[in-house]
Amino acid sequence: MKRILSGLVASVMALSLLAGCGQGDTALQEPEQQQTATVEAGYEDGVSIRVAALKGPTAMGLVQMIKDNEGDETHYQFDLYTSADEIVPLIGKDEVDIALIPTNLAATLYQRTEGGVQVLDVNAGNVLYAVSHDEALNTLEGLAGRTIYMTGKGTTPEWTLRYLLDKSGIEESDLTIAFKSEATEVVSALSQDAEAVGILPQPFATVALMQDQELSINFPLEDAWKTYSPNGQGIATGVTVVRKAFADEHPAAVAQFVQDHQQSVETVVSDPEAGAQLIEAYGIVKAPVAQLVLTNFNPVAAASGQEMKGWVSDYLEMLYGIAPDAVGGTLPDEGFYYLG
Questions:
Q1: pLDDT tens digits, the chain, 340 residues: what are they?
Q2: Domains of the chain by range and CATH?
Q3: Of 8, 75, 213, 295, which sits with the fewest C-beta atoms within 10 Å of its C-beta?
Q4: Distance CA 48, CA 43 (A)
């Protein structure tokens, strides 16, 4: 569907959306421990949870929560970062209690810390979209015979696309994948090849339409993903993790965080205009871009419990099948999922 966007400045801050790291083994291990009882939520006196979030879709749903915490009574300390590399050492040094990071990085950290982190919720769903000058293109099968331009070589965008091509029966010889280092280079390449297709993450896909009004966003990769997902869930791009030691010591405060995050996401999604203003205010992405992304493609999520487990396990199994190192070399056991 073509979106003609005039009078807007095509400006977006550099976002680190996805990561790939780790080392290799096989299948699910036996659970060390799994939460089954429901924990009663509540703020704890003297406890201020230190929260680190990666700028981009992972943090978009957090902004109402950040604003609500700016009064006299605060329960959280928020810091936003442009790179996951800035957050990882803080978790290792116990300087952060909760972090919003890419899903595969969470799995890698679980292995590195020997079960020291757990997933609380999915905070970002699908962000990958096909864009082109061909409005008629609406399925993955339509990529055959074309040149595909994309960023993210050797990371989750590439692995996700290759997984879906394989599942769809599209041979790699049926198309050409050309990698670019920046989203702007993808847009430039598309302007020179009317038959080519770009695979871009949000918000860059939206920014691309603002730069070239003849482009269309054709379809989300999630359309094909849900066909092959064992649990029928969406793509789990980002998750929220908690240090297990902190969760064990402060279960009520952690349960309260999950509830507050859910409420924040619902508020941001229900009022994209106000949510976009907050997203810009906290330096995540410009408001015009954020509003379009929230209104038309909403990547923000807050799925917890068994729903979260279904999303994350499907996504990690896909990554493990293509690049085991991307999830830390082995799939995490049941202790990875916080179900309290």
A1: 333 333 332 333 333 333 333 333 323 233 333 444 567 889 988 899 999 999 999 999 999 999 999 977 789 999 999 999 999 999 999 999 999 999 999 999 999 999 999 999 999 999 999 999 999 999 999 999 999 999 999 999 999 999 999 999 999 899 999 999 999 999 999 999 999 999 999 999 999 999 899 999 999 999 999 988 887 788 999 999 999 999 999 999 999 999 999 999 999 999 999 999 999 999 999 999 999 999 999 999 999 999 999 999 999 999 999 999 999 999 999 999 999 8
A2: 49-125+236-336 (3.40.190.10), 128-228 (3.40.190.10)
A3: 213
A4: 9
Helix (H) or strand (E) holding 254: helix 251-270
The pTM for the full model equals: 0.87
One-letter amino acid of 16: S
The CA–CA distances, whole Å, from 146 to 141, 172, 216, 293 equal 11, 11, 16, 27
Tokens of 292: 């379009």
Q: CA 114 to CA 225: how far, in whole Å?
A: 30
Q: Residue 277 is encoded by which pair of tokens? A: 């203003």
Would you call 89 exposed, middle or buried from its count of C-beta atoms within 10 A (0-12, 13-18, 19+)? exposed
